[in-house]
Amino acid sequence: MANKKRQTEFLLMLDKYQGTIMKLCLVYTDRHPENVKDLYQEIVCNLWESYPRIRRKNNIPTWVYRVALYTAYTHQRSRKRSVPFIDLDDGFFETVASDSGNEMVERLYSLIDRLEPEDRTLLFLYIDNVSQVRIAEILDTTESAINHRIKRLKQKLKKMNENEEEQ
Predict the structure, then answer these.
(1) Which domain holds residue 46?
(2) pTM for the full model?
(3) Does 127 score more than 80 pLDDT?
(4) At what angle do helices 102-112 and 2-27 cross, to 10 degrees?
(5) Are 113 and 57 in contact (CB under 8 A)?
(6) Does position 21 have pLDDT exceeding 80, yes or no?
(7) Are 31 and 79 in contact (CB under 8 A)?
(8) Average pLDDT over every residue of 56-72
(9) pLDDT tens figures, 147-161
(10) pLDDT at site 97
(11) Per the structure, how many domains does the chain have?
(12) Long-range contacts of 123-129 (CB under 8 A, 24+ apart)
């Protein structure tokens, strides 16, 4: 009975954070549908394995981000010698992004692809509307440091975008 309750709680939690996990998968893969599915499944497995050990239920968002990011880092390192970037087919991409602004979302992902992993993580959390306090907690740093890094990252992305538009 306790196992059934735990499974139900986990599935409710997973449903709540499914979009966040999917966005993270898009940031840390080449966006090929199979690779996105593989990383998603790996994250869910790691979440399920560590779910019984989470002590404070109010800390679930931080735990989800940490497990997902650690899994993505590990997955990315293991796939370094993988195939080059492949665009997602339109049908799959439209299920993740809204119909309006697909070009802008694709453009953002192309800029994100060129960032260092630490910057990708910070940008992912920021885009996902995670508070700076929570980001600092997830990345184990100060809120002030996060604030400064976000400002520098915005400037960097703006400069990268302007440089590409000039070409």
Answers:
(1) 2-166
(2) 0.69
(3) yes
(4) 90
(5) no
(6) yes
(7) no
(8) 88
(9) 999 999 989 988 888
(10) 44
(11) 1
(12) 123/27, 123/153, 123/157, 124/23, 124/24, 124/27, 125/65, 126/150, 126/153, 127/23, 128/20, 128/23
